[in-house]
Amino acid sequence: MSPETGSLTTNRSHNLQRVTTGNNMFKSKNIKTIIIPAILSSCAFGYISEIYDKKTNGDLTALFLTVGFFLLFAFKTKEKDKLTKICICVPSALFALFTGLFFFYKVEALGHIHTYWYNAFALFCVLFGSFLAFCKLIGIIYDKTEHLTSGSTENAVTDKKVLKKLFRKYFLIIFLCHLFYFLLSLPGNLMHDNEYQMFVEIGMAKLTTHHPIIHTLIFGKLYILGIMLFGDERGGVALYTFVQMLF
User: Fold this and answer.
1) Which of 1, 4, 87, 119 has the most CB atoms around it within 10 Å of its CB?
2) Domain boundary, last residue among 184, 202, 225
């Protein structure tokens, strides 16, 4: 056998071993740590989106959620010790509980538009799916900021630069996530408080201390400016929503 043939055979063996190892990982580890959590989290925020806004494209939202959560859980994080896992799981559980309560009371307010078992399954997905998503997000943030807590005062300037870089990075990620949903639900989602603030600006409601006065005035001016720029009320709502995303 020539050296070239032997080298080719060795490379093929290594490639076959790599593919086999990858398939084994896909069958065992990835199903538990990536696929199942991504599906649960997609279902969780899909159910929330369903009751929150009926104007969005459900199929497109589901596609973005599935791809987004798959990429999130595919992101590699460091192995955590027991104490760190507790510090990650406790706030994640609280956030998941608040998310589940929001979903539950929203379903109650809508008057049970689905069956009991549908709502029960949806609540299960919201609780556990959001818990897994929060755990992953907090774990990633912990990995990215862990080295900052161990730095000395000599590295204060460097740490400050790193913190600014991290802030810009996280701000961009959060903004892009909001931007995707904003584009799906143009001109935006008006809640009851926003509607009242809008009525205050156009003279259909009285200014009250129930809503922040400065916020109400800023909202009203942006609403009017959006109407002037884009020609109708939808432009006003869109401008206000976009500015609120930035600040």
Assistant:
1) 119
2) 184
